[in-house]
Amino acid sequence: MHKWVRFCLATLLVLAATATVGMLVLRAQALPNGVRPVVWDKESCGECGMAVSEPRFAAQLQTRDGQVINFDDPGCLFIYLLRRDPPVHAVYFHPCEGDEWLDGERVGFAATRASPMGYGLMAVPHGTPGSLSFAEALEKMRRRERGGD
């Protein structure tokens, strides 16, 4: 019986050590802080599968489990969110003009006829006259998915 108690204690000690190491490894793998570089014309859109090739319409989703998913059209990111409901860490949109990516809090959306997948949205800075907020654009895409827009 005495050997059995020692065996149980040793097993618990090994399990505790393994759990501690696992937690330290997870903490060391920090979530992205900012946009991850996109390899233009080499990466596929996470929704439609087309090559992400037009920077002025690109978007990026970062999930809380560490996935980085790129999109060729802002509408593709919205459809991905609506269909899959992933655990979102951050979203970024490349504006139609300029090089600085806009996060979900600093982005607005204006109408365009030329988006790669025809969703008709382009990213602009939040507060641009006539633009939709992130929430409004998401709702517009929700209505479109339901056949109402």
Question: Could you describe the 3D structure shown?
Answer:
- This protein is elongated.
- The chain has helices at 2-28, 74-84, 134-145; strands at residues 59-63, 68-71, 88-93, 102-103, 107-111, 121-125.
- It is α+β, with helices and mostly antiparallel strands and 149 residues long.
- The strands form 2 sheets. Strands 2-1-3-4 form a 4-stranded antiparallel sheet. Strands 5-6 form a two-stranded antiparallel sheet.
- It has 2 domains: 1-30; 55-145, no CATH class.
- 34% of the residues lie in helices and 18% in strands.
- The chain starts with a helix and ends with a helix.
- It has 3 helices and 6 strands.
- A hairpin with an 8-residue loop joins strand 3 and strand 4.
Feature tags:
3 helices; elongated; alpha+beta
**Element-by-element helix/strand order:** HEEHEEEEH
User: Got a strand count?
Assistant: 6
Largest sheet: 4 strands, antiparallel
Beta strand %: 15-25%
Cα-atom radius of gyration: 22 Å
Distance between the termini: 73 Å
Low-confidence stretches: none
Helicity level, as a percent range?
Answer: 25-40%
* Shape summary: elongated
User: How many structural domains are formed by the residues?
Assistant: 2
Q: What is the count of DSSP helices, taking H or I runs of 4+ residues?
A: 3
In which order are the strands of the major sheet placed? 2-1-3-4
Mean pLDDT: 89
Helix and strand content put the structural class at: alpha+beta
